[in-house]
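Hi there,

I know you've been waiting on this one. I reran it after we fixed the sequence typo, so this is the corrected version. Both the input and the resulting structure follow.
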Amino acid sequence: MPDLVIVHAPLYDAGVAPGHRFPMGKYTRLMELIKETGLGSKAHFHAPAPASAEWLSLAHDRTYVDQVIACRVPALIEREIGFQVDHRVSLRAQLATAGTVMAARLALSEGLACNTAGGSHHARHAQGAGFCTFNDVAVAALLLLADGEVNRVLVIDLDVHQGDGTAEICAGNPAIRTVSVHNEKNYPVRKQQSSIDIALPDGVRDEAYLETLSWLLPQTIDGFAPDLVFYNAGVDPHEHDRLGRLSLTDKGLKDRDRRVFDYYRSLGIPVASVLGGGYSRDADAVARRHLLTFEAALELV
């Protein structure tokens, strides 16, 4: 059996205090679980170097990029991000972005690759927001397009929150189609317009969610033939998520991931998966939900 391709850096965990609403420890715990469960013995690991300012500036205002790298982000923007942008948070954002670029390039050669971070979809052109410093998927999509590695990119975002930053950055670019399935009443209050938006009411459970997804998947490529799919596999639609308002079970999340991976891979379209959101006071619990994505991916390689 071929190895599952996983991109990871230990410094994805920026060491934010355990009581923070963003469970930073989930990145460390996820890798521990990958190894403890034996999945690691079936995986091939790659480690990114930090993304350059030039890469980051493809999606973000250069002044903001320089502020993050120098750890001089204005306090108002730091409040919108939800972290103080110190050296570790800055480095984490640069590494996670480069990790998504690496996962995308590996997906093009291997068919499927998973980043153990990424999915920072609230970061907009001018600044970060919502625990997102740099929009890694937007940077990766624009970089691969600029380098001629792909001609068209699809972003399918199944995090419980709308991918507003991705939609804003990629708006008007005919080479990128953005798709977001999210909870209608959740963050952000002001939604952006993705290429396709599916806004779900509170409390949607497995059966209804998966039925919607089965209908949606063919629509994502209707009249659009992507060379690469970025999949934001946020686990915050889970019924016990601290910030979610949907009601998917563990089984529902894993079935969701299986359907996404299987659909695009059956068509021969490479998929780069990013971690996305997942919130709990218990980092182990949320890491176990993220592990489901890697288990589902392993079934496809």
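Quick highlight: The beta strands are 4-7, 43-46, 112-115, 153-157, 176-183, 196-200, 228-232, 271-274.

Best,
R. S.
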